[in-house]
UniProtKB/TrEMBL annotation:
Molecular function as annotated in GO: U3 snoRNA binding
An individual GO BP term: endonucleolytic cleavage in 5'-ETS of tricistronic rRNA transcript (SSU-rRNA, 5.8S rRNA, LSU-rRNA)
Pfam families referenced in this protein's UniProt entry, alphabetically: Utp13
Any one GO CC term of the record: 90S preribosome
Name this polypeptide is given: TBL3 protein
Positions of transmembrane segments: none
Domain annotation U3 small nucleolar RNA-associated protein 13 C-terminal: ranges: 21-131
Subcellular location: Nucleus, Nucleolus
Keywords, sorted A to Z: Nucleus, Repeat, WD repeat
InterPro entries for this protein: Utp13_C
Amino acid sequence: DVTEIEEKEAQAKQEEQIMKEQELSNLLHEKRYLKALGLAISLDRPHTVLTVVKAILREPEGRRHLEENIVRLRKDQKEAVLAFLVTWNTNSRNCHEAQAVMETLLKHEAPDTLLQFSGIKSAVESLLPYT
């Protein structure tokens, strides 16, 4: 009977998730945005990434801080943010944040680099009608 083992694994996974949620909350409270962005991206939480972006933009000189944080992300993290911002851009409440992140990516990434992002073609096609 493997039911007990599966239940323990599920419980351990749930506890780990709760710990990561608490860590994310602490990072936001401490204004450690780069780590918060990385953790939210690794948890595959587009809304949480959006919350972090909004928190950064509320800071004095928020645009500059947003640029500093987005530029320091790894390529796979930037790809994830690009996929998230496609969804954000379709909602008028979140489109300004999506445009700010997109502006940063366009300004700091070479066109050849952007073309190597997975899903760039569909992202551009999805962004055009709303941008």
